[in-house]
Amino acid sequence: MSSQLEYKVFKKDIQERPFVSMSTTPAAIRKAVMSLTQGFYFEAAHTLERAVDADASRRIHGHTYDGEVTVRGVPDGKSGMVVDLAVLRLAIESTRDKLDHRFLDEVQGLSVPTLEGLCAFIATDLYERFGDALVSVRVGRKASGDSCLLSLG
Questions:
Q1: Please, what is the end-to-end C-alpha distance for the chain in angstroms?
Q2: What confidence tens digit (pLDDT) does each residue in 84-101 have?
Q3: DSSP character for 113?
Q4: Residue 48's closest CA among 114, 103, 144, 101?
Q5: Of 38, 43, 93, 121, which is the most buried if we count CB atoms within 10 A?
């Protein structure tokens, strides 16, 4: 089948078949708990007091951090969403703005600028908005291959 013909068949099938709403979904699936994850990144600099690699760590240096925030819950019967992704993205953006292109040693509320400290900072900031729906925060540095996962509950 040519790709043009495949597209027409697919398009016709979509037009004839309405989107499956949560109200027509079997009860077991409607009541299922779902996890929703949104990724983000930020650039920041810091210093670190440590025993290994001490000289390099004490100097101001920066990283590209990547993060993920996961919320969990039963999708709303009307909207079909655990959390509106636009709302989740706005909340993450607000938190991200507190970290992006900052000197982490000076960020108010961030105890120690480690991966663990960043996870705790992000989770604390977002918990105010999402409460118990917030189930995990992950922060990593792909360039060095390390990350930290904070799991709630």
A1: 50
A2: 999 999 999 999 999 999
A3: -
A4: 114
A5: 121
